[in-house]
Amino acid sequence: MLEEVLKQEAKKIAKKYKIGENEVLEKLKAEGENTKEGKKEFKKLLKKVKKNIYYELRTYKRKEGHISILERDPYLEKLLSNIDGELKSAKSIIDVGGGMFPITFPFEKYPNINKYVWIDKDKTSYRKLKSKFGKMEKLVLFNHKVGEQPWSYYGENFDVALLLKFVPVISRQEKHLLKIVSEIPAKQIVITGNKEALTKRADIKYREDKIIRNFIAKTGRKITKSFDIGNEFGYVI
Ligand SMILES: C[S@@+](CC[C@H](N)C(=O)[O-])C[C@H]1O[C@@H](n2cnc3c(N)ncnc32)[C@H](O)[C@@H]1O
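^ inputs. structure came back:
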């Protein structure tokens, strides 16, 4: 009987969080050993296990560092094919909050690009990219926070700016920087957002889309293309 109840609860939790049913069941059983009987206690147990799962997923993902890249991996080709035209004709790119994106970027496919400026505040990504691409002249890496230098410091009139999974992050964490981001000197901007949350299996497209559309309104630009790929969606403006 109890096993059945636990299984059902595990199923529910696994539906909500990005974790397998069996793994949840193990956790429920382990935690359940120290739990007294009773409805109230059982509720407490569920709450505790959910909380642990949430924090475990968060820390695991944060430690991973490359999470955006991993999440995108199955959809990278789709993302690139949606902005292929823009990339093919671009000579200069500015990738803001670029994370580890250059690792997966097929530079050989876009020989026209002679300058790819990367800006990100994350030291670990910077170090990794520096050691991998240190000798690649066209990739210029700045371990900066947005706003640390005026845009002109990085160059003028870029052909394409990449704001991949970046605008919603800034909107949540450093809203005051949105205005600066909206003034990025680029002919075209590619903006994307997540459709799935980090820990929960919830669809967050609606929420992220609202943030991105507000941002687009700030830039005063028009949407020239929109796309939806796997767990990411975006616009060219
Ligand atoms: C969700 S990741 C996206 C990474 C990459 N654009 C991609 O799509 O794979 C967001 C990135 O923004 C960077 N970031 C957040 N706030 C920043 C800021 N104020 N200035 C520069 N980079 C920032 C983070 O370090 C992180 O690498």
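The longest helix spans residues 39-64. The radius of gyration is 21 Å.
thumbs up if we can close this ticket
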